[in-house]
UniProtKB/TrEMBL annotation:
Top-rank taxon: Bacteria
Name the UniProt record assigns to this protein: GNAT family N-acetyltransferase
Lineage of producing organism: Bacteria, Pseudomonadati, Pseudomonadota, Betaproteobacteria, Burkholderiales
Start and end residues of each N-acetyltransferase domain: 9-168
Pfam family, one: Acetyltransf_3
PANTHER family attached to this UniProt entry: GNAT FAMILY, PUTATIVE (AFU_ORTHOLOGUE AFUA_3G00765)-RELATED-RELATED, N-ACETYLTRANSFERASE DOMAIN-CONTAINING PROTEIN
UniProt GO MF annotations: acyltransferase activity, transferring groups other than amino-acyl groups
Organism from which the protein derives: Undibacterium piscinae
Statement: the UniProt record of this protein carries the keyword Transferase: yes
Keyword flag Transferase: yes
InterPro entries noted in UniProt: Acyl_CoA_acyltransferase (IPR016181), GNAT_dom (IPR000182), N-acetyltransferase (IPR051531)
Keywords: Transferase
Length: 168
């Protein structure tokens, strides 16, 4: 299901057919370093994660992490969307783009669209975001998107995360 579009991108709900892309993204070294190892190594496991993750969350909460596709060729290039974590009071924005597509403004464009969607469609008044302290490109993107660093806090894996907030 298409959720939103921007000048160059379509953001849509993930489908089981996206499992190969999802598997490649979550096993990219940058994902494992900054987000963590999900332990998903097969197409079947990726399909199960999509079904119990993105698809189920979209049905239950009305938002999810969305697949980012380029309009020009329908290439899946990343994920961007909203997450409700038990550890945070507010819904947070998350994003990840395959390294081949870094530096082209795709994460900024997708996140800007998701922020608009959160405000105008979902009626949210505030968003949070977290990133690992050493992920400077992500911190820079959050600041460019208008998020303010609130604190550095311990996370569930025992490491620290930078915690950002933004009023919508």
């Amino acid at each position: 299901m298409r959720i939103l579009s921007t000048d160059r991108l379509i953001l849509r709900t993930m489908q089981l057919e996206d499992a190969a892309f999802y598997l490649a993204l979550i096993n990219a070294p940058s994902w494992i370093k900054h987000i963590g190892d999900k332990g998903i190594r097969t197409i079947d496991a990726a399909q199960q994660a999509i079904m119990t993750g993105s698809i189920a969350v979209q049905e239950n909460k009305g938002f999810s992490l969305y697949l980012i596709e380029r309009k020009t060729d329908a290439a899946p290039i990343g994920l961007c969307g909203l997450i409700k974590r038990d550890e945070l009071d507010d819904i947070d924005i998350g994003y990840a783009v395959l390294p081949d597509y870094w530096g082209q403004g795709y994460a900024h464009e997708a996140a800007t669209g998701v922020i608009r969607y959160a405000k105008s469609i979902l009626g949210l008044s505030r968003l949070a975001a977290i990133t690992s302290p050493d992920n400077l490109p992500s911190s820079g993107l959050l600041e460019k998107l208008g998020f303010t660093l609130d604190s550095i806090m311990p996370w569930t894996d025992g490491k620290e995360v930078k915690f950002y907030q933004r009023n919508l």
